[in-house]
Amino acid sequence: MSKTAPRLLLVDDDKSLLRLLKIRLQGSGYQVETAENGNQALQLLEKTAVDVVVSDLRMGDIDGIELFEMIQQQHTGLPVIIITAQGSIQDAVAATQKGVFGFLTKPVNIKELLLLIDRALGVSPMKPSQQAETQWREHLKSRSGVMEQLLTTTAQIAGTDVSVLINGQSGTGKELLAQALHQASSRSKKPFIPINCSALPEPLLESELFGHVKGAFSGAVADHQGLFRAADGGTLFLDEIGDMPLSLQAKLLRVLQDRQVRPVGSTRLYPVNVRLVSATHRDLDQMMEDHEFRQDLYYRINVVKLEIPPLNQRPEDIALLANHFLIKACEQASTEQKQFSPNALELLIGARWPGNVRQLENTVQELMALTPGRVIGANRVRQTLSNEIAYLPSYSEARRQFEHDYLSKLLRLTSGNVTQAARLAQRNRTDFYKLLQRHDLKAEQFKGEE
Known about the structure:
By secondary structure, the chain is of the alpha/beta class. The protein has four domains: 7-132, Response regulator (Rossmann fold, 3-Layer(aba) Sandwich); 146-307, P-loop containing nucleotide triphosphate hydrolases (Rossmann fold, 3-Layer(aba) Sandwich); 311-386, Helicase, Ruva Protein, domain 3 (Orthogonal Bundle), CATH 1.10.8.60; 395-446. The protein has 20 helices and 14 strands. A five-stranded parallel beta sheet has the order 2-1-3-4-5, with helices on both faces. Strands 7-8-11-6-12 form a five-stranded parallel beta sheet. Helix 4 packs across helix 15 (342-350), helix 16 (356-370) crosses helix 17 (378-386) and helix 18 (395-413) packs across helix 19. It comes from Motiliproteus coralliicola. One of its GO terms (molecular function) is ATP binding. Keywords: ATP-binding, DNA-binding, Nucleotide-binding, Phosphoprotein, Transcription, Transcription regulation, Two-component regulatory system. One of its GO terms (biological process) is regulation of DNA-templated transcription. Residues 7-121 form the Response regulatory domain.
């Protein structure tokens, strides 16, 4: 093994798991030290420099949180990842509030652990060059493995010019992900221009996208360049593209095919060089079956699909986001900095958040405004959450979420065996594969999870 490979310290009183993780992490190119309890870990850290510590939470002498606190006193800034078989909301609150870098439950998903380790190696204050490399994603606050996997994919495709479709529920941060993709690309010095396709009637949307010439229609008192030309060299983000009318979809397809745009009322064609990123919360596959979305356009905009998970599938991010939004809200209100009590954070982490990150931010702003003191307590959070208007997803959103969860459960039960999963679902393998493709699920993701 190369002497320059990062060095990890694994701490766990389960000898078999310790041995298994060591083998897997060494196979991924890391140098690995092990300790069977907290005291051994502290003694080893006195003699050996490591880059990341991965520790069990429940141990005989010193638990993972206590070990983390001792490490921070003696080795400030050393990232610590906590794993536990007794995963709970209380554990996540305690870990994230104290500054633990990441929190995973057993059985350990090795892919998620590797993603957390990779990110932990990049945030060390001793590696400023690596920190600079992650500035493109600084507005996307996350500790969860599922988000890290998404951001890793985003970074991988940023260097290409392929069209990207971002799918996710309302409020998950689709535009933020599109901005991050733009910032990570070679187009970052050029414009990033967003437009919401559901916010304008068809004639205005066509004019906004493609431009118009003076006199093209009533009210066109001057030439208008249009967003395609304004974004030349950069990125054009079409939010809620599923709401674009069919007739306009055909015109958009022509622009993407020819890489030229003709303003409304003009006979002149203008070359355009833009990267197209689209987003929707709707089920475009179902819309194609219902003849509400053009299949040829779908394949143009969906060269790569990025799926943003809903907030309730990344609970380890909730405390991080809530504290971030609270700092931001206090700064904007020019008031003293407030903080959440541990019980308040526990309630936030346990909430459903049907409105996702946007709902969480709005809730935090309300909590900040309604709390006169410095500490936001559990009673205030409980009252605010109980006063929310009940949220009902649309029929298509609910059906899509049910299908995704159902397919994931089948693959988890069968360890990724598609034949067995299709049999349980009483579907033939061809149809089952189509369903997996529709929901961007890959059977191999569910094989051999530890």
